[in-house]
Amino acid sequence: MTEIERTLTITQQSDADGPVRLRVAGELDHHTAHRLRETFTSVPFATSGGVIVDLSGLDYCDSTGLTALITGHHQAKSAGSTLSIAGLRPHLERVFRIAGIDQVIPLLPTPERPSGEPAIPSDPR
Q1: 94-115 as b/e: b if 16+ CB within 10 A
Q2: CATH code for 20-108?
Q3: What does pTM read for this prediction?
Q4: Residue-wise pLDDT tens for the chain (125 aa)?
Q5: Could you tell me the CA-to-CA distances from 69 to 59, 93, 95 in Å, in that order?
Q6: Where are the domains of the chain?
Q7: Element at 55 (helix H, strand E)
């Protein structure tokens, strides 16, 4: 039996005048969630204007992925900062709302800056 290759890419962008933006794409599950948890340990929560996690490129998320996002939320809160989720596809937004994630972490419709320009360049897939 061959294991299916699971991919997850995480791109971090920091702006001097705004929040840290993490673009997470691929599959966030039992096999890949540790990478997001590791990324959260290096995010400068205390010195940033918050963190926006752009999930517009996320294809799949299981309970381990949800737990990694909640862990990031707790790290931000402990540092006196915030963490928001942006750009969820409809099928994932439904899962996040059923799981009650929207009661803990703000869900933003799009990962855009106030000027309307994309927060993180679109994935060319």
Answers
A1: ebbeeeebeeebeebeebbbee
A2: 3.30.750.24
A3: 0.83
A4: 344 556 999 999 987 778 999 999 999 999 999 999 999 999 998 877 899 999 999 999 999 999 999 999 999 999 999 999 999 999 999 999 999 999 999 999 877 644 444 444 444 33
A5: 15, 14, 14
A6: 20-108
A7: strand 51-61
